[in-house]
Write a structure and sequence with these properties.
By secondary structure, this protein is α/β, with parallel strands linked by helices. It has one domain (2-251): Alpha-Beta Barrel (TIM Barrel), CATH 3.20.20. 40% of the residues lie in helices and 17% in strands. An 8-stranded parallel sheet has the order 1-2-3-4-5-6-7-8. α9 (221-230) packs across α10. The radius of gyration is 17 Å and the shape is globular. It binds zinc ion (ZN). Zinc ion (ZN) binds at residues 6, 8, 36, 92, 128, 202.
Length: 255
């Protein structure tokens, strides 16, 4: 079995063929999907899908790109969503200094609020970080994020950053980028301790080779597993078994 630890099935790219997509994922051996919310609407929709599909789980939170929406009254609505029995994590949250969706202070205020909520609810965190790996880890350390742990999804930092994340009790998620030649991500990923590695798609974005440039979907997480196997990590079944166990340990994905 495989787990797609980071998907966005509520995005409009999937509106027309979600049932077929889930069937393809199951046929590819993807037995669990963490469907990640990015604001109140997508979080609520993710929960509704998780109620309907036993192998799909939800998270709730505000993506850094939506952090301007995460004002006090919006944040007050999150705990009710996080209490839902199909919600397995807080997020995605974090910082994005690359696209600069919102001023740094606004992003950071929302991120800190998410960490506090995760601690209150005893839920792991799902972090987005782009051009901000060091700052994300600094804020996590300051706010006690290690207490609940979580994942640095689509990790784009270097080997030192990955080591620090592991030391702070976090997992590292890798997807299609490890299959892109010369991205450098595979070298970082191969250095991560086996028990801290998660696989993901981040679909609809970042489809792995040989689907690069197409719409991504959970079934393609198998290409990411095969990439690790080809790089000498172990055979594909070892990669699947270990990363599935890791996702189960972090998120507790029991239907
Ligand atoms: Zn995401």
């Amino acid at each position: 079995m495989l787990v797609d630890s980071h998907a966005h099935l509520m995005f409009p790219q999937f509106r027309k063929d979600l049932d077929d997509l889930l069937a393809r994922a199951r046929a590819a051996g993807v037995g669990r999907i963490v469907n990640v919310g990015t604001n109140l609407d997508t979080s609520r929709a993710a929960i509704a899908l998780a109620e309907a599909e036993a192998d799909v789980f939800a998270s709730a939170g505000f993506h850094p790109s939506d952090s301007a929406k995460a004002d006090e009254s919006a944040l007050k609505k999150l705990p009710a969503l996080l209490k839902h029995h199909r919600v397995v994590a807080v997020g995605e949250t974090g910082l994005d200094f690359y696209r600069k969706y919102a001023p740094r202070e606004v992003q950071e205020r929302a991120f800190r609020a998410h960490i506090r909520l995760a601690r209150e609810m005893a839920l792991p965190l799902i972090m987005h970080s782009r051009g901000a790996e060091t700052r994300v880890l600094d804020v996590l350390a300051e706010e006690g994020g290690s207490e609940v742990g979580g994942v640095m999804h689509c990790f784009g930092g270097n080997v030192e950053g990955a080591k620090r994340a592991v030391d702070l009790n976090f997992y590292l998620g890798f997807g299609g980028i490890v299959t892109f030649k010369n991205s450098g991500a595979l070298e970082v990923a191969l250095d991560v301790p086996a028990e801290r590695l998660l696989l993901e798609t981040d679909c609809p974005f970042l489809a792995p080779v040989p689907k690069r440039g197409k719409r991504n979907e959970p079934a393609y997480v198998r290409y990411v597993a095969e990439c690790f196997a080809d790089a000498g990590w172990g055979d594909t079944e070892d990669v699947c078994r270990q990363t599935t166990q890791n996702a189960q340990t972090l998120f507790g994905l029991t239907s």
